[in-house]
Amino acid sequence: MSSFYQRKSRARIYLLGVLFILWSGAIILRLVDLQIFKYELMKKKAIRQNQRLIKIIPKRGFIYDCKGRILASSILRDSIYFIPPDEEPKFEQIKKIDMIKEIVPLSEIELKRIKRRIEQEKSFIWIKRKVDEEKAEKIKNMNIKGIYFEKEYRRFYPQKNLASHVLGGVNIDEHGLNGVERQYDSQLFGKSGTAIILIDARRRRYQLRVLKKPVPGKSIVLTIDEIIQYIAEEELENTVKEFQADSGWIIIMNPWTGEILAMANYPSYNVNFYPTSPSLERNNCISYIYEPGSTFKIISIAAALQEEVVNENDIFDCEGGRIFISGIKIEDYRRFSLLSLPEIIYYSSNVGAIKIGLRLGKERLYRYLKSFGFGEKTGIDLPGEEDGILRNIKKWSSISVGEISIGYEIGVTAIQMLRAISALANGGYLVTPRVVKKIISSNGEESISLIPPRKILVKEVARKMAQFMEGVVEFGTGRQAKIIGYRIAGKTGTTQKLNNFNEYSRDLHISSFVGFAPANDPVFSMIVVINEPKGKYYGGQVAAPCFREVAKKVLRYLKVFPDDNLRKNLKYAKKF
After folding, report:
1. Which of 247, 294, 349, 512 is catalytic?
2. Residue 400 bears catalytic tag
3. Could you read off the pLDDT of 27-42 as tens digits, one per residue?
């Protein structure tokens, strides 16, 4: 009997031994699996659960105007993030987010993102980045479990809308979206750093360790003058509103160096809040292509003078204000009979300009259009510049020479037009426009590579055209640009726009005026373009008065005295 129980007891021991061996083997196999085969996977999972690697965005460089006034800086703001506690139900976590959104508005997209990450049991969730101090303080005072704060730099533009299309703006990660911020992003941004947020077993943050310090960005000094920019923007807004126009833009440039003193668009936007509308963020000064109309007559006539196919004493029969080219009738705004070459410019005769263009011929006209830089980018240091439209000479029709001579069948940008006219102001040189004067790093100033000016006209032709443009303001179509005591050179332009049926509209126009001052010793050149004014629409009625008001204030600001007290403006004009 006893042997039976002994055998039964041994069997149980054997069974327990086998079970123990199997259990131990299973544990060993699991440990081998975890420690050897799944080591890297489990290591990554542990890291995800206990630490979070974040990027430290560096302090972005300052942007100054040409006098050292701050246009863009970076300030520290609190960013809010959430580390969900393990023991807390998801609905409690979502309730906390709903508490925060009462103070810090969260968009539907942001709310969906946060709630989705909570459902996915993420260990780190951004709630809102770069929050205003007052709102951040309110949330801190609520002492919500799992809510933490981290300091980040936020871009700040103290002048709000001023020079918005030049500056451009940045995204949430401090990278440039447009304008100078985008063009010079690599210099302004600097180099990012990295840090680790360590989380304990209860999902509480207990340490932030910096692994790599960020390197601050370089600063930039613009050629823009804050005061001149303000003058241009104020008068542009007044003009657009007065004539109920769709939009408008102004560029003011040093014709000797290509430095942009002001570049204004209306409507503009507050750079602290980057627009979502593509039409609002577009810089029309460099990207809007339009037919220039009569301002372009200056180019074709300058080319004809240079080629000596006309001279200022020539008289042209303007045939009562109409001319036929290949059966197509082109008219003047009034009936002209005999006009001298200067009078064709003063009174902006289409017929006279066409006859001069026909004397020049298409080959020479095309060559000069290319030399003036039409059909290609000016090279200004801003993103989004358009080439304009200059068709290959092989694609010109029988009326193209006449049409182009008066500013049709060609598409230009305002910056192209201003650069071309500036060649008449500076004695015949084509300059490259730019908005950045210098870059400043911790090691000092860095030089900007400049493209040397290119000679395109002889000095005598440039000077003669400047005199003709003075006549436009003195007693021609640009009389409303006249400033008592100053010699102003300019040219008006009025263009019909194409409608939806690709036909020239009687109601849609572009009014423009381009010129420089003082005419005998220019300190700036300027173009004013008003898009779709209502009521009055001639360039001399709409754009010329705007030019006058801007020029009057800028001349006063630059301390340029009237002609009876003339002095050489060597401080502002670099002669070649």
Report:
1. 294
2. no
3. 777 666 656 665 555 4
